[in-house]
Specification:
Layout (H helix, E strand, L loop, with lengths): L2 H4 L2 E6 L7 E3 L5 E4 L4 E5 L6 E6 L4 E6 L6 E5 L4 E5 L6 E5 L1 E2 L2 E2 L3 E6 L5 E5 L8 E6 L5 E9 L2 E6 L5 E6 L4 E7 L5 E9 L4 E7 L5 E7 L2 E5 L5 E6 L9 E7 L5 E6 L4 E6 L14
Length: 285
Amino acid sequence: MMEEFKKNIALFADGLDHPECIAVHVDGSVWAGGEAGQVYRIHANGGEWEEVANTGGFILGIAFSPGCEWLAVCDSAGKCVWKMDPETFKLDLFSKGCASHPFNIPNYPVFDSAGNLYVSESGEFNKVTGKILKFSTDGRGEVWHAGPFSFTNGMALGKDGKYLYLVCSWLPGVERINISNDGSAGAREVYCTMPRTVPDGIAFDQDENLYVSCYTPNAIYKVSKDRVSTLLVEDWEAHTLSNPTNIAFGGDNMDQLFTANLGRWHINKIDLGIKGLPLVSHQNI
């Protein structure tokens, strides 16, 4: 692990079931999912957690809507997205896809400021069949971009909301799609490539640097605005970072980076010292 970050990485919560996803609530609590359908809520100070719901599937990505009114939960085993009330923990089926494309691997959800939900559809393993679906606030879905993408995974909106950034795990790298004024998908381009990695999750800081967590190697990279990629932290032993899949900014000052570890049972907290870009659910943090 890079020496300068050893002291900044701490165990935030332990004993979870191979968490792949992570999201931060406006109240500071950290939420994650497990490989047997668990939805976890972790106390803002870390350590204490509870399983608040279970879909019976395999939880991939999660995201809070504007105002944290509900949590979108991608379930690969159920081939669906669930809608969960963060107060009552009630789960309702949100969508199994759209008329022209039922979900196969719904991977990661992202909300825009209007409450529209984008969901990455990974497609199939070892095939370039990934897509992006979009759902309006009333649940109507469509294929927003037909791709094909090389295994769509984590996503994030850029600072001005004009681009949707998308991990393509077997590109390997990140693409971005322009969001047109009418909300349709515009031009598509490769934002960066990351040879000999399998990128999974992304998050922006307030200066528009992009952080990319990788299923392999056990590393997080930082991609600057001019698209130069540098290694932020790596753990070749895979004890602290172990298949770090999704990442999310949180903490009192939004300068802590939380990482899920699909290869183990814990959540990390990295005192990054750099503020993250607030999501639409974070406007009050």
